[in-house]
Amino acid sequence: MAGLRYTKEHEWIRVDGDIATVGISDYAQEQLGDVVYVELPEPGKAVSLGSEAAVIESVKAASDIYAPVSGEVTEVNPKLEDEPETVNGSPTGEGWFMKIRLSDPGELDGLMDEAAYDAFIETIE
Amino acid sequence: MTGDTRSLDELQYRDEFISRHIGPQPTDVADMLATLGFESLDELVRNTVPEAVRGELPEDFPAALPEREALEALARMAARNKPACSMIGLGYYDTFTPPVVQRSVLESPGWYTAYTPYQPEISQGRLEALLNFQTMVMELTAMDLANASLLDEATAAAEAMTMSQAIAKGERARYFVAASCHPQTIAVVRTRARPLGIEVEVGDPEHDFDPEACFGILLQYPASNGGLPDYAGLTERAHAAGALVTVASDLLSLVLLRPPGEFGADIVVGNSQRFGVPMGFGGPHAAFFAAREAYRRYLPGRIVGVSIDAAGRPALRLALQTREQHIRREKATSNICTAQVLLAVIAGMYAVWHGPEGLRTIALRVHRLTSILAAGLKEQGFALVSDGWFDTLSVEAGERAGAILTHAREFGINLRAAEDGRVGIALDETTTPHDIEQLWRAFAGLGTMELQVDGVDEALRDDPLAAIPAAQRRTSGYLKHPCFTSHHSETEMLRYLKSLESKDVALDRSMIPLGSCTMKLNATAEMIPISWPGFARMHPFAPLDQADGYRELIESLEQRLAQATGFAAVSLQPNAGSQGEYAGLLVIRRWHESQGQGHRSVCLIPSSAHGTNPASAVMAGLRVVVVECDEHGNIDVDDLRAKADAHRDDLAALMVTYPSTHGVFEESIIELCKIVHRAGGQVYMDGANMNALLGLALPGRFGPDVAHMNLHKTFAIPHGGGGPGVGPIGVGEHLAPHLPNHPLRAAAGPEDGIGPVSAAPWGSAGVLPISWAYIAMMGREGLTRASQVAILNANYMARRLSPHFSVLYTGIKGFVAHECIVDLRPLEKDTDVTTDDICKRLMDYGFHAPTMHWPVSGTIMIEPTESESRAEMDRFCDALIAIREEVRRIEAGKSDAADNPLKHAPHTVDEVSALEWSHAYSREEAAWPLAWLRDAKYWPPVKRVDNVYGDRHLVCSCAPLDDYRAAVE
After folding, report:
1. What ipTM does the predicted assembly reach?
2. Half-sphere CA count of B164, side-chain side, radius 13 A
3. In this complex, which of A36, A39, A62 lies closest to B948 when CB atoms are compared?
4. Which of the ends of chain A has fewer CB neighbours closer than 10 A, N or C?
5. Closest Cα of chain A to B321: distance in Å?
6. Edge-to-edge strands of the sheet including B945-946?
7. Could you report the average pLDDT of every consecutive run of 10 residues in chain B (969 residues)?
């Protein structure tokens, strides 16, 4: 998907002004299988690059979601509480996790673009 | 018959039990050895177990006893125990096990030989029984959620402490424990808090508790001394400051008392023992653990939940497994694995049998007798510590306390000697009016008493709950589900238990080839003694001079286990393998401290380790550093060397499983131990795979400093559907001074020990006769033979399966240890068939699947144990080979890729006998793929269970089935 940037931990990020929307990649949701639960941070929480920001669980695995950028959580996706399967159905759309107000836009430079991420997945498969 | 020239001595067949325990008969053994190219078992061992680790049982290890003689020896020990009328309390009470439950559950192989219900389709019976247990706990405590048991009340309280800290997520590191909690609970909480850096403050919650400074508080209700403090205000204060409230409680009292859930408790724990489970000198019993809905993802232990099957009908299975150590590893909140399923089933069935009315009658009677006793004592001029009570009194006896205890013992009654001249008296459902009159006499200095129980009873009848403050009486209902009101005649109960049992696959039906779980024979002769009153009715804190039989049993078993493992000393206190790991690591830490090396905090754990290892290490306050494994599943020695070297200054221990979790005798084990020792660390050996070692190698001699043994694997204690377990540890001489001990029982451990890890001094003493009998009846020769045949059986199965599947991870000579890993990844790659499909399909053939996806994803691990006969192993191999054929048909395009017997497995009788049959394969192929199934068909009661649905819609209690259906629609 155009305009998305990715981490090696399979989070994606979409930037609009100083707000970054964060979710997990299609590859990640497929590896996890059916998502049954997502634990999201409280809005207002400060997160730093690489810190644990959320937890996602399928029936067979539990994974931490790391903040791909530093900043303050401004909003979380309310839909995931009752319909965690949205992450499987629309990982980069309706299945977004949280919005973060960027504190250091320079951090975006360290992320991969679509092509680089695809190439990265090739190397781990 | 003529020509038999055996002597009388030879006819006195003393090894009889060995050949009963070991499945393959001598001619089979010879044939199987020939298949593998060996002439003898010794030759097999020489080619599988590395020379460097080999060691025999000592020459003076006893020879086998015939069954009858072993039973006689145990009967003599039981007779040396003198079960008195124990009114000591402290969370342990005498109880009447309903006879129908004793015979149909406790003494029934269909229940006690089952495995943990990880394969839900063939475990619906015990899952339902556990759901009953959870529902009972939830309703009596008035909490939203309960798990399917923990090991004991004290460890449950410790779990509540760590869970509270995880939920509070703050900076606070102090935990408040009311001094009115049971002393063994306080002691275990202290043991568990110390390595985690949690400061435990013990005091009077009304005066000493500062909720701003603590992340939580532990209260006991009723208090250990029987009092009924009103905790409502305290709970409010705690919540206002963000501290969590845990209440340790008693299920029977909650029939009459306002339940903790109604005054705001966040977590409620306790022991369900008095619901029909014998005291057994301390265990095993099922602890319960209940919490608020909001904390469900923090709950320790297994939870049974309701889901649906592939046909959309209600089906049960273990829920939210991602909380558990096998997935979370070092991030798990608890290392709990084996729990106390068999005992939870019994406690739940006690509630089913008595129902809400029956429980109320029992509770009212116990309470009435207590009030009668209190009235008489007051009349004698004794003051009671508390104005309110349910079933326990604390009497101010002053200087007369000693004499009173002595007099009571002369009447065969044990009381609790509390501090400050107080005497504790705890009543239970077995207490009689005569006991009350004896107690009055004991308190009167053996003088005569004018009082009559009947007379006092009449005076109390007008206000029977006078001793329970009005605000603390229960007003809400409980046990409303029909299962608690439908099985009150013995015929109904008998059939209910039978109907549940017959839904499940246990060892009484077919082999359970679970790798790493050692589902061997649990012989009847081993099981019989645990029901004898001499073992069953002993209170864990009864005076030791009443427990000579238990002391003999414990000393003898400790000695045999030490001999069998080559260690200097053994502690029987850990009541599960995970507890053994935890205790062993604490012992190592304490030893380092004694050497001035208390800063050592790194624990090396191979990536192939079982999930409990890292979880236990974290609980012991250690930092986990993962050691890589090579492509053969062996520990990468170079990586270990590098990491041991890098942590030379802070290395505490290596945890290693031997033979490895991949079922291989690693040649490098001795080298690994040396590397760790040179770097200042100690070696902890996980004894999960001890069944390949006994009599062939002595872990205490080839390097490890500590090892745990699972008595519920290697030493014949049954798995009980997921507990009980017993996980003793053996240690080298230098570590012996630091083994677990117990504050209420000096004889249970060394003075400089690590403190108690279990509530009871000797853990689950009540099931130790099983392992004692196993060792006695197998003897030196039998135990060695068992290991040899376990290895033979695994290699035989590997050989039979190898033309059809690829067998992974053999040792350098091409042989496996006592289990083998079958690789299904090639099939998964070539077709849509998954490991799950194959395992579910085995159910149609009447088998429990092997261990799945562990230690390698996409594989199954098969461990036949020595107890399976060649015929049974052949039957299992035939089934797996037939399934391979079914996959081949898919590969060849002869069978539909989506509509085939694997994808739709397992098949229920309902669908196979339905008028409509729409599959691309026949009913015959679905249900009777091999001829023997025509004679003995097991029908899975449900189709494949939908785990996703259940985890997204969590329901963990019995509810009317219509509710589930509505949820599905």
Report:
1. 0.84
2. 35
3. A36
4. C
5. 7
6. B314-319, B303-309, B945-946
7. 80 86 97 97 95 96 96 98 97 98 98 97 98 98 97 98 93 96 98 97 97 98 97 98 98 98 98 98 98 94 95 94 79 87 98 98 98 96 96 97 96 94 98 96 83 92 95 96 95 98 98 96 98 98 98 98 98 97 98 97 94 94 94 89 97 96 90 98 96 96 97 97 96 98 97 98 98 98 98 97 91 88 93 95 98 90 97 98 97 96 98 96 97 96 95 82 49
